Amino acid sequence: MPRVVSVFFPTLATDRIRRADPSIPAESPLVVVARSGSKRWLSAVDQNAAKVGLHVGMAGAKAQALVHGLHMVDADPAADLAALERLTLWALSQYSPVVATDPPDGIVMDTEGADHLQGGEELMLSGLVNRFLARGLPARAVIADTWGAAFGLARSMRAETKVIPTWKTADAVVRLPLSALRLSAETIVGLRTLGFKTVGELAATPRAPLSLRFGPEIGRRLDQMFGRVAEPIDPIRCPEIIEVHRAFAEPIGAAETIGKYISRLVTKLCLELQAKGLGVRRTDLIIHRVDNTIQALRAGTAKPVRDVVWLTKLLHDRIERIDPGFGIEKLSLAATMVEPLKDRQMVSGLVEAADVDVTSLIDVLGNRGTQRIYRLAPVASDVPERSVQRVSPVAEEDGQTWPMIWPRPVRLLDRPELIEVIALLPDHPPVSFTWRGKRRRVKRADGPERIFGEWWLRTSEWTAVRDYFTVEDETGERYWIYRSGDGVDADTGSHRWFIHGTFA
Amino acid sequence: MAQNGANPIICDLRDRIQHLEGAVARPKTVLPFGVSEIDERLPGGGLAYGAIHEFAGGGAGSVDGAAAALFVAGVAARTKGKVVWCLARPDLFAPALAQVGLHPDRVIYVEAIREEYVLEAFEEALRFGGLAAVVAELVRLPMVASRRLQLAAEGSGTIGLVIRRWRRQTEAGDFGHPTAAATRWRISVLPSEPLRVPGIGRARWLAELIRVKAGESADFEVGACDAQGRISLFSDAGNGSDQTRRSVHTG
């Protein structure tokens, strides 16, 4: 089952022009003008222009008459396509092995077997949109089971990202307008004349009369959208990518055979990488099946690698994900993302033991898609929940640790829980407290440790205070509790008590 | 229990059995606690490398596993090299681990998206070799799985530390079921060391060695891990305090 991401750039043409020419003021409306014969019409409008009432298809002279100070640029479809191709190549190295342009203003990719490297589908989509937005390119992205559905949803929704779960495509598309179907303009006008408004209505109509009147195109597009007809994506390739192939005279299908050829391909790839002094970060195994469908597996590594054993293990680990169907006729292995890798001198094990490199273990676990791998590093913050951040497991080891002055609990609650206490204000620990329905008498206590809000970061914490106490009940269990506020001034907090963690 | 070379015939016999048992001729080393009373109860004088050790909390600790986690962190802190910590519920507060000597640079956390995947990460990390210790926080540990993990640990010589924590206190009866672990411990909290002034003293734990291969079970009252991950036995002679009870030995 493919999982297709369709990315839609609503204002690709104008964004490209703005990027190339920073002298255009950001607040002025910008439109792109195309010519057909002697007619000049708007082929793209940016957000500012859309706000003042301009739209695609309007006559150029009319737009000029309506808006004062309108920036008009001649259309250059070739440059737009080149920009789209560059974006597609970037997406190829980052997101998925199977990526193609969806002209004039979109990218389509099959991320089956590759989304785990981005932390799942939802994170992948939001990351994708944010990275485009950071480059001044608004984008919308949808993931669905079929290209048709993802295409239609991306172009007709207001949200920036949407994940349609597997097998839920049909429910998601029934309310889409007809323009989502990738039909010619005349066909859509004709269908509207007949009273059709949504895809659902069209799908529920008998096919024969429609085909008689409009030809087979409508049926084909509907089937593609609902996944009844396969729509393979022809992946883009750039000549710099190092790629090795192996075609088979007889289609193969057994896991052992696939494994054997993967090992051979990896050996070949590593030789080519070695000749160029490169290491690979993303390796794609592309499986061409006899029924002309493509499946891809992507293996990511945390550091550049050209170790045959290591890469082979990463790919072998996921052989069970390959569905050979009626047989595989060609395997190709591509090094999609490469980085320079220099030979290093290793420390001899004679005097000091060589430091074990755990990167290969991290890669093996990371490629399973079932684990998140990280290290926890200190942050200079007194607020306990902000003093820890997740960093990459291969991040630089800086030897930093937390201050050791105060004891810290082993388990920290996700969010502090309200407790009922009996306590003497302002600075005595509680005599007893009730947490999760159980009353505990405090035998011993330490504190308070006063922690101030970070007013230099958040103005809402200007006066906020937490007073932490370590308390021990009669059985010896120790808890970390705090009072919001300093016990005197109501501005510093609500004076309610919370439990925040458990000591050992 | 005579453990170390008391009887040469027994020692020789043990060596021959070990030779017959495994094709891997690995010198079996141990990680001692540095407390002679505990070490002499353990075969070889400490926690064996290349084996699985199980730790659970007692009372409320069976759910939060706080004392067990800190005890394990202390054990891991006394090894050298990287430690992989596999978990599914990320409520561990790293500064506390740093306070028992487990530096944040040394710990790689592997957070599984579901409870079931902790086992596969644990096994993979055990097989890798070259890690100082591998820790896993597990709810269920069936016999078959533990046997598999034990073999993985034997193959690479890595010490595997399992923290058992259950979702409910009533489920903790599961700890009675046998597993292939070399030692099983239950760590419960005790009221802390009394001080002459108001405040909380050094934490104390009751460490029950419930099961040990080729050894007898025992209970120890220990003082919690210090900044280097070392525990100490609580006894009158140790700190000169007149209020602590004598350490309990039953076994």
UniProtKB/TrEMBL annotation, chain A:
Entries under InterPro entries matching the protein: DNA/RNA_pol_sf (IPR043502), DNA_pol_Y-fam_little_finger (IPR017961), SulA_CellDiv_inhibitor (IPR050356), UmuC (IPR001126)
Keyword Lyase: no
Domain DNA polymerase Y-family little finger, chain residue ranges per copy: 245-345
All residue ranges annotated as the UmuC domain in the record: 18-146
UniProt cross-references to Pfam families, sorted A to Z: IMS, IMS_C
Keyword Cell inner membrane: no
Cofactor(s), names only, from the UniProt record: Mg(2+)
Highest rank taxon of the organism: Bacteria
EC number, UniProt record: 2.7.7.7
Keywords, in A-Z order: DNA damage
Recorded catalytic activity of this chain's protein: DNA(n) + a 2'-deoxyribonucleoside 5'-triphosphate = DNA(n+1) + diphosphate
Role this protein plays: Poorly processive, error-prone DNA polymerase involved in untargeted mutagenesis. Copies undamaged DNA at stalled replication forks, which arise in vivo from mismatched or misaligned primer ends. These misaligned primers can be extended by PolIV. Exhibits no 3'-5' exonuclease (proofreading) activity. May be involved in translesional synthesis, in conjunction with the beta clamp from PolIII.
Subunit structure: Monomer.
Protein known as: DNA-directed DNA polymerase
Organism: Rhizobium indicum
